[in-house]
TrEMBL record:
The chain crosses the membrane at residues 43-61, 68-89, 95-115. This is DoxX-like family protein. InterPro entries: DoxX (IPR032808). It is a multi-pass membrane protein. Its main location: membrane. It comes from Algibacter agarivorans. Keywords: Membrane, Transmembrane, Transmembrane helix. It comes from the Bacteria. It is found in: Membrane.
Amino acid sequence: MKKYIPLALRLLVAIILIQTLRFKFSAHPDSVYIFEKVGLEPVGRISIGILELLAGILLLIPKTVWVGATLTLGIIGGAMIMHLTQLGIEVKNDGGVLFITAIVTFILSAIILYIHRKDIPFIKKS
């Protein structure tokens, strides 16, 4: 059971990251609105989408889990900062779902990185 929890966490974060890509890559009006509001439309929307796709894939490859989790922390940390400084908690009457999803994804990524901390090559093994 213990070995399945980390895999389930990785799958959950990868699914969250990858399922949002259809909004970014199809220029969904809500996604365009968000990135226009923070001044990153369209280059930021596409670039962040590519980085989220890469992070999702890296989370699924055992040797690169730590890289995917680190990348996810950076991306989602940036999203949380944008929510707190420019977008607000609630975006287009979503009830804060987008922000809460970001928080959950950030926390799960931090847990994944902690679980896989021994896989990080430049961290001293003890």
